[in-house]
Specification:
Number of helices: 3
Number of strands: 3
Number of domains: 1
Strand order of the largest sheet: 1-2-3
Shape: globular
Radius of gyration: 14 Å
Oligomer: single chain
Order of helices and strands: HEHEEH
Distance between the termini: 27 Å
Structural class: alpha/beta
Largest sheet: 3 strands, parallel
């Protein structure tokens, strides 16, 4: 994790309040469908969520965005168990964000 400058904040997060305060320091939070992702969306923090092809029906079908959280972008599997497409899409968009931030 050190080679990629990844910091494990787990030992410092004791409540959703702690987690919410940590989100204030992030440019982007990437997650799966978890309470932490919902918290980021509810706090209007930028969050990208990977969804299984068999995700909960409340995420609707074939949508990139959700009416629940304006700051959330969804990346969906096209085939159950195959993460190649959503991860490739996410990687490409992350590269675009990084390039824009450098410019």
């Amino acid at each position: 994790m050190q080679a990629h400058n990844v910091v494990d904040l787990g030992p410092y997060l004791h409540s959703f309040g702690d987690t919410g305060r940590a989100y204030e320091q992030l440019d982007l939070f990437i997650s799966i469908d978890t309470g932490a992702a919902h918290l980021a969306g509810a706090l209007n923090r930028p969050v990208w969520v990977l969804l299984s092809q068999a995700c909960d029906h409340r995420w609707y079908d074939c949508r990139r965005y959700t009416p629940w959280y304006a700051s959330m972008r969804l990346y969906r599997q096209e085939r159950l168990g195959d993460w190649s497409v959503p991860l490739a899409d996410m990687s490409a968009e992350l590269a675009q964000l990084a390039a824009a931030k450098r410019a």
